[in-house]
Amino acid sequence: MTTRKADRLDTALASPLVDSHHRRITYLRLSVTDRCDLRCTYCMPERMQFLPKADILTLEELYLLARAFMGRGVRTIRLTGGEPLVRRDVIDLVRAIGRHVGIELDEVTLTTNGTQLAQHADALARAGVRRINVSLDSRDPATFRALSRRDALPQVLEGIAAARDAGLEIKLNTVAMCGVNDAEIPDLVAWAHSQGHAISLIETMPLGEVDERREDRFLSLSQVRADLESRWTMTPSDARTPGPSRYFDIAETGGRIGFITPMSENFCAGCNRLRVTATGQLYPCLGGGERVDLRSALRSHAPDREAAQALDRAMLIKPERHDFRIGTGLAPAQPRHMSVTGG
Ligand code: SAM
Ligand code: SF4
């Protein structure tokens, strides 16, 4: 990937990004592809309609966007998708962004399903990544297969081990699902901690149509937390990451657990995030339809000015909060799947 064109973008710190609800934006989730090698049942249908390849931004364009956000005070960039590691040459992009860590950026990181992590862990560490999130919803091969519709648990576990060996700090992400992995959660937490990894539990969100009824699977984390508190001594932790996890330390396992509760405990008041799809559409809210088109801005005759104006527009239209609801007869809050907007 050449960065010469990209380097023309002026990144002198223009006005920081502050939305109309006085929230300062410092965190970008940048999707590099909506494609994936798994088909998690809560995320997408088996026959997923992916975005047209011709509409996907080049790696150079993604880097230009990253620079534009850094120029407006974004300090953390998380590459996501879809599965970021299925995008060819994505490490070139990580490396290019990684050069800004310690200067404009505090951190470049990524969220991955881990299937390709064994091949890429060393390169990620060399590219400037220090921490990654790996999604792991089950350590039981049959449950993993049913949930992801693919037989990939051994590769994922190998990927997690390789990442640890490469010196990457790992946080596991687990979507809690009723009747699927709920009984396994305490074991999963204990295993994560025994390996030295933190773990965050996530509530399933109504994003895009899937092949099952979300209300059959939704599990409130307040219930899960009460169950875990009956087993273990859990103390609220002061630890914060740039994302929405709220953490507890568990005395018996010596590890940390996070709860991401978009449904049961709204955290929008502290939102510091923006999301950009692999086609350059900026969605200021995961749960909203508002968007601005950064691809057109990038491909205009005045990309710097157009991109800056698009970011200003995003600040005006970022909603105060999402309005997620899961229930019989309710349509998804958004037709977009999480794999499109970027998790
Ligand atoms: N493929 C990568 C992975 O799975 O880690 C990155 C993209 S994925 C969309 C990011 C995160 O979103 C994963 O932790 C996944 O479990 C979560 N996710 C996907 N769909 C979701 C939904 N409808 N509700 C809650 N979390 C979801
Ligand atoms: Fe792929 Fe991640 Fe969605 Fe699973 S959650 S289908 S791994 S994008």
Structure description:
The protein is of the alpha/beta class. The chain has a 12-stranded mixed beta sheet with strand order 7-8-9-6-5-4-3-2-1-10-11-12. It is 29% helix and 18% strand. It has helices at 59-70, 90-98, 117-126, 141-148, 153-165, 185-194, 214-217, 221-231, 294-298, 303-317, 338-341; strands spanning 27-33, 76-81, 107-112, 131-135, 169-176, 198-203, 234-236, 246-250, 255-260, 273-276, 281-283, 292-293. The two termini are 25 Å apart. α1 packs parallel to α2 (90-98). A hairpin with a 4-residue loop joins β8 (246-250) and β9. It is built from 11 helices and 12 strands. Bound molecules: S-adenosylmethionine (SAM) and iron/sulfur cluster. Residues 36, 42-43, 80-81, 83, 111-113, 135, 173, 175, 202, 204-205, 207, 338-339, 343 line the site of S-adenosylmethionine.
What brief labels describe this structure?
alpha/beta; twelve-stranded mixed β-sheet; binds S-adenosylmethionine; TIM Barrel; binds iron/sulfur cluster
Strand order of the largest sheet: 7-8-9-6-5-4-3-2-1-10-11-12
Please give the count of helices: 11
Q: What is the rounded Rg?
A: 19 Å
The CATH C-level name is Alpha Beta
Q: Any idea what the CATH superfamily is called?
A: Aldolase class I
Tally the structural domains: 1
CATH architectural type:
Alpha-Beta Barrel
